[in-house]
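Re: that chain you flagged

S.,

Sorry for the slow reply, it's been a week of failed gels. I finally had a moment to sit down with the sequence you sent. For the record, here it is as I used it:
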Amino acid sequence: MSLNFDSARLFNPHLLPEHEEWRTQLRKWLEKEVVPFLDEWEEAGKIPDELWAKAAELGVMQMGYPEAYGGISEGIDQWHINITNEEFTRAGSAGGLMSNLLIHGIGLPPVINYGSEAVKQMVAPPVLAGEKRISLGITEPSGGSDVANITTTAVRDGDHYIVNGSKTFISGVMNADWVSTAVRTGGEGGRGVSMLLIPTDLPGVARTPLDRKQGWWCANTGTIYFDNVRVPAENLLGEEGQGFWVIMTNFNPERLSLAVTMEAAARACLEDAVEWAQQRKTFGKRLADHQVIRHKIATMKQKINATQTYLQYLTQAYIDGRCDPGDLAMAKVQASETMEYCAREASQILGGASYLRGNRVERFYREVRVNAIGGGSEEIMRDLAARQYQL
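Prediction finished late last night. Pasting the structure tokens below so you have them in one place:
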């Protein structure tokens, strides 16, 4: 067996023919619409506007959302979502492309799950059709992981909220039409947090890009500012004081997707390292014939196997409604450590070639940190798990 992205994927008894059909269809689309242009988009720091409509035509935008709002839900489960994350990563971007094109994956669920029917009808259909965009605004300049202590305020004034504050490191925000935003409507702590859908065309909203990033260059990342922004009260997502719960339930699928993306990135690094080791010669023989290189590759596969097995278990547990948040938090740590190890070892095997832009290993190595920090840093994930385990 020659090790590549597909052969290094362990057998998954939960995958049905329709799952593999989706993988084949999506890969074919990515090979045509993304792979030839990704380097160009990375250097330009953006992706073309028409990609949203193309993704909607394929069904990527709508996958997993209620059909009443233009989604595709019949026969769709978390395995389809995992495959989508794997294949976008295989195309050469460990989250950067998805954090722009598919950022509605974390921005739209609060609307679908907690918004009024009028708000759902206003927002979901155009977002799922690729015509409008929505982001999620949680992180603030004063802190990211300490959600219970956010400082952006929303004060009720008749049938509106007056919002003041800012959010930063917000993916997709520069072109977003709405931002599902965590605001403080009450006292200190999590019970004072609410979620509010804020249209970005309101007076008092301003945005600046964060375009000098280590990785995720094609991702549309920025800071958004609210200066006495009047937001209709009907844009409240859930009840006042329910925001912390909305945010926490939104984190679990996000962390699962991040972990799947990181495992796929590790597997792509393995594929590129194996291919290089089998072709490149040093001291009269292939790199793959040197014991030290073979051991690097074997250890990469060992760590990938462990991470895949972990994610297989957790994905099915998530589908069955029995996924432990602590176990999921530790899976994200497992995946980030595996990605970092494999990116480093693949870089060692490729040598100078991995230091030049235009290959997956170079890009994935730069994208390790954003994956290890975003959605909950390794340190926060370990602490969350410890609390879940009631230590």
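What I noticed first: The beta strands are 134-137, 153-157, 160-171, 178-184, 193-199, 205-209, 221-232, 236-237, 281-282, 285-286.

Talk soon,
D.
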